[in-house]
């Protein structure tokens, strides 16, 4: 059975004109048996996060949330009564949270955050019905996405796939499933982490054995850099799972970092497409690697900010076995995730993204050696199949950076065959990305492609 998962992000469902396109795209695919996955309307999850954080604003923000959805329904020509029941339940839930001034439990927080996706799924399903398609909104948990109870960053349980397959099998009605959410086995709502709707789509696609997972967003694919940093960035037509995973992991927000794992396991191609320009080819992410045709083989540059580096210096490390094991045991015990690792004879440096438990880990590391912690850093990752093996790439990159006085603090090369990553000061990260975009031929190559200059090929 041909089956398609179509995930629409916040701007795709959150702008009336884009929602109309999304609905049309789904109806056009009716013979491909689509399952729709939706994010909250643009801005709504941020509003809910703020509502959870600030007890003084709960009432005001709860009403703003209601007004936004009613206004949106009116703009797309759906009757507001459609949402009456759900919005009444939202008001009850928000009011209950509003009565306490204490910090919310993680479970209460996830339940409040879930309303953004619940409402967008209802709106999307109603818009499909109006277009003549039998459709039904589903809470992800009720559609079978069972997770553990790590609220805020829940993991699907192994039985989720079979349950999703069973519950989403019967159609019509066409399922419109909430992204971002799951539920524990005893029915408490969980969230998968910010930006997690992409991951939801991949989990559902993998569970159902979809022919393709489509991520509809606001750029025409994965671009050669974050367009907010490099306005010249252009779509990369084809990427391997390895390339796209590295980009997502190192900050390309267009895909949640966990998205590609379920797709990879079942070898399901993922496409990234632009709802506002649905005829653009977008990016196709497939199992096989295929080097870029440019001389440096680089396809895209990603950048992750707010990075902290921890360096442990120990003269005892020299020739001692078990040193690295002790260091990583400390990080593991405190559940600190490390990204890049570099070692020298007497020291080890790692980068850390989430510093939640870092202070405790550092206290323990001080029993092993002298510890230095530096924040305000950024990781830049230069990604392309075969790039790591490209002789001279590192020299070229660091010469370019050195030429404008950008100091490189840590380098990790060859850990993966598709990337070269390094650490710079956060304040210099955008400059580094722009410089490399140009210096690695990503600006020029695009111009060549646009103007079809024959010389570029040779
Ligand atoms: P959605 O709501 O559809 O999930 P997101 O805002 O989560 O959309 O992700 C899309 C955004 O990701 C883009 O608008 C862009 O600002 C940002 N982005 C960062 N790096 C890249 C990249 N390499 N390619 C495309 N978009 C990127
Ligand atoms: N609405 C959620 C968020 O903003 C999930 C998503 O958009 O993917 O984080
Ligand atoms: Mg997103």
Outline of the structure:
The chain is α/β, with parallel strands linked by helices and 458 residues long. It is 38% helix and 21% strand.
Shape: globular
Distance between the ends: 44 Å
Percent range for β-strand residues: 15-25%
Q: What is the mean pLDDT? A: 93
Uncertain spans: 452-458
Main sheet overview? 8 strands, mixed
Bound compounds, please? Answer: adenosine-5'-diphosphate, aspartic acid, magnesium ion
Q: Widest sheet: strand order?
A: 3-5-2-1-8-10-11-9
Number of helices: 15
State the total count of DSSP E strands: 17
Radius of gyration: 24 Å
Helix content bin: 25-40%
Q: Specify the structural class.
A: alpha/beta
Description:
With 458 residues, the protein is α/β, with parallel strands linked by helices. It is built from 15 helices and 17 strands. The longest helix has 25 residues, at 106-130. The radius of gyration is 24 Å and the shape is globular. Bound molecules: adenosine-5'-diphosphate, aspartic acid (ASP) and magnesium ion. Adenosine-5'-diphosphate binds next to helix 1. Magnesium ion is lined by residues 9, 195, 198.
């Amino acid at each position: 059975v041909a089956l398609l998962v179509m995930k629409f992000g916040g701007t795709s469902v959150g702008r009336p004109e884009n929602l109309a396109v999304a609905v049309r795209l789904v109806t056009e695919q009716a013979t491909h048996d689509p399952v729709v996955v939706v994010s909250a309307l643009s801005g709504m999850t941020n509003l809910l996060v703020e509502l959870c954080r600030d007890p003084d604003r709960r009432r005001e923000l709860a009403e703003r949330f209601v007004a936004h959805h009613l206004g949106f329904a009116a703009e797309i020509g759906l009757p507001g009564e459609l949402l009456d029941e759900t919005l009444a339940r939202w008001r009850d839930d928000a009011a209950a949270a509003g009565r306490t001034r204490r910090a919310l439990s993680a479970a209460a927080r996830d339940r409040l955050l879930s309303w953004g996706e619940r409402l967008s799924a209802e709106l999307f399903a109603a818009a499909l019905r109006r277009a003549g398609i039998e459709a039904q909104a589903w809470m992800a948990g009720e559609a079978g996405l069972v997770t553990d109870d790590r609220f805020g960053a829940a993991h699907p349980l192994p039985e989720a796939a079979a349950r999703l397959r069973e519950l989403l099998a019967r159609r019509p009605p066409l399922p419109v499933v909430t992204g971002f959410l799951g539920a524990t086995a005893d029915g408490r709502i969980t969230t998968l982490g910010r930006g997690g709707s992409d991951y939801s789509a991949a989990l559902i696609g993998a569970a159902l054995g979809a022919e393709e997972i489509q991520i509809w967003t606001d750029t025409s694919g994965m671009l050669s850099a974050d367009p907010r940093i490099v306005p010249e960035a252009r779509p990369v037509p084809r990427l391997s799972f390895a390339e796209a995973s590295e980009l997502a992991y190192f900050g390309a927000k267009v895909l949640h970092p966990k998205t590609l794992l379920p797709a990879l396991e079942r070898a399901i191609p993922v496409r990234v497409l632009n709802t506002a320009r649905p005829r653009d080819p977008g990016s196709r992410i497939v199992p096989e690697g295929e080097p870029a045709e440019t001389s440096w083989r680089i396809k895209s540059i990603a950048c992750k900010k707010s990075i902290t580096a921890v360096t442990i210096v120990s003269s005892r490390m020299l020739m001692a076995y078990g040193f690295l094991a002790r260091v990583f045991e400390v990080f593991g015990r405190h559940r600190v995730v490390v990204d890049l690792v570099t070692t020298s004879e007497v020291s080890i440096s790692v980068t850390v993204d989430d510093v939640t438990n870092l202070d405790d880990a550092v206290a323990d590391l001080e029993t092993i050696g002298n510890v230095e912690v530096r924040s305000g850093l950024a990781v830049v990752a230069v990604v392309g199949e075969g790039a790591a093996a490209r002789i001279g790439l590192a020299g070229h990159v660091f010469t370019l950076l050195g030429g404008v006085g950008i100091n490189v603090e840590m380098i990790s090369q060859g850990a993966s065959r598709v990337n070269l990553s390094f650490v710079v000061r956060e304040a210099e990260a955008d400059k580094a990305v722009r410089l490399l975009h140009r210096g690695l031929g990503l600006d020029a190559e695009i111009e060549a492609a646009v103007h079809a200059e024959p010389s570029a090929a040779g």
